[in-house]
Predict the 3D structure of the following.
Amino acid sequence: MKKKILVFTLVLCWQSNAMAIANCPQGTTENVDCWSCGVDCTAYLSNIKDEAGNIVKVSGTETASQKLTVIGTGDMQNYSPVCDNGCSSTSPWYTFRDSITDIKVEGLDSVGGWAFSFMNKVSSVELSEGLKEIKTGAFFENSSLTSIEIPDSVESISDAFNDCGLLSSVKLPSSLKTLDASAFSNAAIENIVIPTSVTSVSADAFGNATSAGGYYSKSKIINVYCNEEIANQCEAAVQWKRDLGKEVNVIPYQKDGHQIFYNNHWYNSANDILFGTYLKKRVYTVEEAQKVSKKTGNTFKLRYK
């Protein structure tokens, strides 16, 4: 039985252009297997243990929980979905999908297309600073994922979290520029803040009522906090849900210098709106103070709004 599993893994790696490698990175002595996933990219599995050193089990099963770590530089390679009486991914670790509960991506510029799709036991995803792009289908149908914090270096999110049915908490990065079609279609997100850096929001970012069978109409989006400068794009992104007779709100905020003004309060970032962590008064940078304040000697007398 062990030989059969090994053969299947090697065949899968060959099909996805990801060769199995003999030596895993230093400090990963408990790996099930490890693979090359790009020119300078290595992926490996390791068992998750509790504080007592016991191997943690996948919820409801006797299978060991495992962490998939993908580490390297440059772009991660892209994979593909294969749909024939059910769907799968050509990624070499897909065969271990029933044991992988945690994913960590470290040092890479991008998460490859369809890299972690159809991995229904994954409940935790950690993405490192420096990541710039999350590509199509990267986390498609991760049905156990409930939250994601995207690092403040990512500039583009394609249709990466489509059909993550339990995904209810998303923190978008202050570096984000574009939110593409189906980025969060069919997710459980009710409230989301679009950062001030975003200049483009697809009309299908949160769903599309015209998809076959109304598939994307399951989106739970209710409130979208959006920079007033792109409020029209945010309105278009939720119009499909209004057409279905569902309640949904676009709540505009203002960007003033390096801070946010919303509901008579100042915030350091757009994401702080959801947490209610507002500032007691407007705080100026030195550059802003020079523009709005009266110079008195070598200092400025600041006027707070």
In short: Confidence is low (pLDDT under 50) at residues 1-19.
